[in-house]
């Protein structure tokens, strides 16, 4: 859905009009002892995997940001700051000392991460901030970050409006608050406080416009509560896709009474979801959790204003029961839909890779499963530039739950060696059979490899014959290829 | 090495071609670009008893008006395209005025390809002047290479180390005063590299049109793997003294369908031994084995010695006309088909459409077009459908106000009838569903509806407002093979 995009554009275009609303007081560094034990600088070393050579990593990348205390031993920050991290270090505002701490949990959908200092050399005290679950819009809060010398700098931040925000284009957007900052911001994870309470932490900012995005208190509270419970299930998923329904012709075709001009169209339900037995394609979803939906799927949130109803899903938890009203063939039906966990509906083509992504090299053939991360590694405009067959499989497969573990196994490329002469130009091919058996995932390939001890026949969707490797020479070839290309053991 | 003159008077053989051309607009398919003028070269070739005025297809593609002019003669003679082969970038022109032919001295076609390092000259009228230009160079490579005019065909090419500039196109390349090639393309950014269409391709074109019709090159329709991997060879049981390539996929719409099978090892073509890298030796030159097929015409037969199921076989493959479906060659001299329904413009997917809409191809709904273009044949889309019909545009009107999110989607069905080609649209539109046209698309679950009566009623207003001359322009219907 594009709702969050349009909101973001609208928000950015409003800068000029809003700039004058900020108080004109200068933002001077202040000694802010009260936050010393609540807000900490975070130093992160991260290394991304090279998706086409999953045993390799990009050069290490250094990031800096903030974490806020959640309890006496745990802290919160944004997931984008610690993504692909190899080392997370917590500092203290008044000392140059940084201590390695543990990353307990990350959630890419909610863009939040939980950190733990228990059992680490960190010696400071953590003093949690009181969370303001629903900071009012239009209020001026205080943005804090740390400048040279470990001094807190405080500046005004005006909470503008509710928006839908995604940490990247592969995950569903969640509700957030846009803000306009007096200060240029120097790191994500930094807090904005409203009357001394934590209104949220910064997930994104743009210093050229002073606009930023805040993960609000309510999202922090929910994440923290679920994470502390020990049985974290992640974001909730409704289990169906939908589209706006402004077209009167389509409404008439669906036999919606002319008196009803609201509601959105259910396009499909995902197999295995709790929505599948309750909703049907072409249902018109009129109400969600007591909220009337307009034909764009928006409801009026008492706190954040107009938002798509997916905001309600994002604020919910797996297992929550949501009363709904749908129009089916002109007849009004009421039912209750139980939300699934996002992770309970694994896509046939996952949007992102597990860390580390599983792979296998046999006879120089590099195998792995297709993912959004694999395609995005092509760079900008990857929808156009990546292999079109794989992009199509990604677009079709990302909303196609694979309940029995199906994936799209790939022959990514061939590491040239004498055993694979004749096949060395093959790349980005979908593997259909291995050793004569159909395969639907890398897991299947690994299973066959484990059972047979080798992989000597591979069929790809482009070709109707097997690529054959010399079985007797495979062991020696694998050792030679591993040495030549400096390969580690397959995970 | 430019400007070396010859004792031969080329002005009696080589002519300038002046072209006024118009390209179709593939996003507003009833319109065309403004007429544009350009020039190229051509020459008179003695073809048996006939004298042919030969040039490149790309010189005269989409021509609205053609003239030819001889050097030193102020007269321009109207000409017309008699035959054109876009797959080989050659064309023959007719000049009806007999005065043009007075004093013409046709050139002869050489019997053999020149050898590497043979000195050749290119004669023509490159941009920058009205006088003949002669460029001298040597043959630096003879290879099988893509022809940029169609963007999908590859044939033999003569590479010479003399620049081929715009305007040179269509002029002869001569060795010992006989034609060994037709200058046709260069490399952008590379100096002194020019390409010419060599004798075998010229000969193929002239033989093809001898019956008064151009059929084009037959396609074998086989994807093959080199047989360099010993394990693959062993798995096929191929004796060690044999070489060849293994058939990996057979196109169901081309000549090899039902004749060759995946797993066949092609050992020889018309008696010429195929080596493990897919080449044959012509003289001492290794050339792709497909070159022998290239020299055949539609209707002829090619013979393969092959290894199938541990036995030697000889299989005859009659060569059939190539299928254009899902091939996406550049299109010339056509009026793009289209149909307008309630202001929505439908037209077949083409390379030109992809070029015209390239800035919008990063939208998810357009991704199916890229897929069909790149993998349509390999994934067998053409076994089911003749083409992809695309919702290419919207002429805004109240009846189509909510259709934008479907732009550049490929139509799968209309009113529950599958759409295999644009010709399937009119009959499908005769049976609206509950008074609505229901349009479904490939690779997306949502669908578009138009109230049928309102869509029909909108036509006069849309036609007048956007100056659309006709609701549709459809090609003659053909049955799927």
Instruction: Give the biggest sheet of chain B.
Output: 8 strands, antiparallel
The radius of gyration over CA of chain B amounts to 25 Å
Mean pLDDT value of chain A: 89
Q: Low-confidence segments of chain B, ≥5 residues, pLDDT <50?
A: 1-7
Structural class of chain A: alpha+beta
**Share in helix of chain B:** 10-25%
Strand order of the largest sheet of chain A: 6-5-2-3-4-8-7
Tally of individual helices of chain A: 11
Main beta-sheet strand count, sense and barrel state of chain A: 7 strands, antiparallel
Give start-end ranges of low-pLDDT stretches of chain A.
1-20
Tell me the greatest interface.
A-B, 40 and 47 residues
Shape of chain B: flat
Q: Could you give the distance between the termini of chain A? A: 37 Å
The total strand number of chain A stands at 31
Quickly give the structural class of chain B.
mainly beta
Overall outline of chain A: flat
Sheet-strand content of chain B, in percent, reads: 35-45%
Determine the fraction of residues in helical runs of chain A and give it as a percent range: 10-25%
Estimate what percentage of residues of chain A fall within beta strands: 35-45%
Topology (SSEs and partners):
The complex is a heterodimer of chains A (491) and B (481).
Chain A: H1 3-13, H2 15-18, E1 29-30, E2 39-46, E3 61-69, E4 74-77, H3 79-82, E5 85-92, E6 95-100, E7 102-107, E8 112-116, E9 140-147, E10 151-165, E11 174-181, E12 191-194, E13 197-206, E14 211-216, H4 217-229, E15 236-237, E16 240-243, H5 248-253, E17 264-269, E18 284-288, E19 291-292, E20 298-301, E21 305-308, H6 310-314, E22 321-328, E23 331-338, E24 340-341, E25 360-362, E26 365-369, H7 372-376, H8 382-385, H9 388-397, E27 409-414, E28 429-434, E29 437-438, H10 442-452, E30 457-460, E31 467-468, H11 474-484
Antiparallel strand pairs in A: 1-10, 2-3, 2-5, 3-4, 4-8, 5-6, 7-8, 9-10, 9-12, 10-11, 11-14, 12-13, 13-14, 15-24, 16-17, 17-18, 18-19, 18-22, 20-21, 22-23, 25-26, 26-27, 27-28, 28-29, 28-30, 30-31
Chain B: E1 14-21, E2 36-47, E3 50-55, H1 57-60, E4 63-70, E5 77-85, E6 90-94, H2 98-101, E7 107-108, E8 119-124, E9 133-147, E10 153-160, E11 172-175, E12 178-186, E13 194-198, H3 199-208, E14 222-226, H4 230-235, E15 245-250, E16 265-269, E17 272-273, E18 279-282, E19 285-288, H5 290-294, E20 301-308, E21 311-318, E22 338-341, E23 344-348, H6 351-356, H7 367-375, E24 389-394, E25 410-414, E26 417-418, H8 425-429, E27 436-441, E28 447-451, H9 452-466, E29 472-473
Parallel strand pairs in B: 2-7
Antiparallel strand pairs in B: 1-2, 1-4, 2-3, 3-6, 4-5, 5-6, 8-9, 8-11, 9-10, 10-13, 11-12, 12-13, 14-15, 15-16, 16-17, 16-20, 18-19, 20-21, 22-23, 22-29, 23-24, 24-25, 25-26, 25-27, 27-28
